[in-house]
Design brief:
Blueprint lengths: L2 H9 L1 H15 L9 E6 L8 H13 L4 E7 L5 H4 L5 E3 L3 H9 L2 E4 L3 H5 L3 H4 L7 E4 L16 H7 L2 E4 L2 H9 L8 E3 L19 E5 L11 H5 L2 H11 L1 H9 L3 E5 L21 E3 L7 H7 L2 E4 L4 H7 L4 E4 L3 H7 L13 E3 L2 H13 L11 H4 L7 H10 L2
Parallel strand pairs: 1-2, 1-4, 2-3, 4-5, 5-6, 6-7, 8-9, 8-11, 9-10, 11-12, 12-13
Helix pairs in contact: 2-5
Amino acid sequence: MSVTLKEKGRWDPLKVFLKVSAAYILSRFYRNAKGPKIALVGGNLGEKYEDNASVFHKYLVNNHAEQVTAYWMYDPATDYAKNGQIPNAVPLGSFRNYLLFFRADYTFHGHSLLYDIVPSADKFLNLNRRTVITHVSHGIEGFKKILIQKEDVPLLKRTDYFNCASRYEYELKRDKWKIPEEKLIITGFPRFDRYLPNQPPKEMKRILMMMTWREWLFDLSREEFLESNYFRSTIGLLEHEGIRNLLKSNGIHLQIALHPFMKRFEEHFFPLADQDYGIEFLDFNHASIERSIEENDMLLTDITSVSWDFLYLNKPIIFFMFDQQEYTEKRGSYLDLDKDLYGYRSPTVEDVYNTLTYMVENNITHNEWYGKADEYIDYFDQDNCKRLAQRVMNV
């Protein structure tokens, strides 16, 4: 979760109460207001304009401005909304944010209503019964079993629709999350509209490395983190002499995108950047994951949701499963991590090296598991935003 926004709701209860109260009362005067419908859209905890929510926001702005005014909710501690001139951007936690929430006809969030759309929503959700709330999701579910916090319970109950990428995800949310069928809609993921499917590269010259987060690492001290399997495995991969020489001798560039929660530890990673070996770290504040997915020829990851995009594009993937047993015990996965991966499974650094060597020597530029894509993704037509808007908003 976004620590800044989470603490904001806890530390300023009086300010939140005053804003919410005033916004709720004022919103009553807008009940019969005419004009376009109001939709609030947010994702990535307001910290970036990326992923499903941002793609859907762009779609509404570009295609349905007359019927719907689509607002983007952003973290006021960031400057991307201003620098990127994002239309109808509103700071989270502002009075305008709360007023719009009570007036909104629709909301669409990627992670949580609480952190993407309106802070402290769980405390006053009962005051808003008119807004249609839709969870558009962050990535296709499967790698991580759901963790439901106390504040999530009323939010999940109040959510009207849960978007699904496919029948696979529909059944997972119905059977594992216990979401009522009438709340589940299969319209595809907005972010897949960004690119054509089945676009394997002509050669492998650029590798994107992305590792996801583990919640049990969050409260570790600096010393504990540096001794963690997560850090040692990641560093071990980047320091591996065979991998470094393989990159250098074949002119392969390795781009590393650290998880946002890794920011407080980034100083321990950055010294491993090495232009001679083509190893580069992306700047989280300015990097575009969308652009990185398009520009890179393959993905090296553990279980990040970006792997679904690479499968969609028919680009090769190496799954670095360095802590599979620990991960399975502490979090768990709906997928069988031994059988269901749609890429090369490599449990050790040496396995990653051997796999990369095999791929380079055999000029592997496609995903050998691409035939499994339609097991997890129902639509490849770039109409996911259109379907979502029609299904929820009838536009």
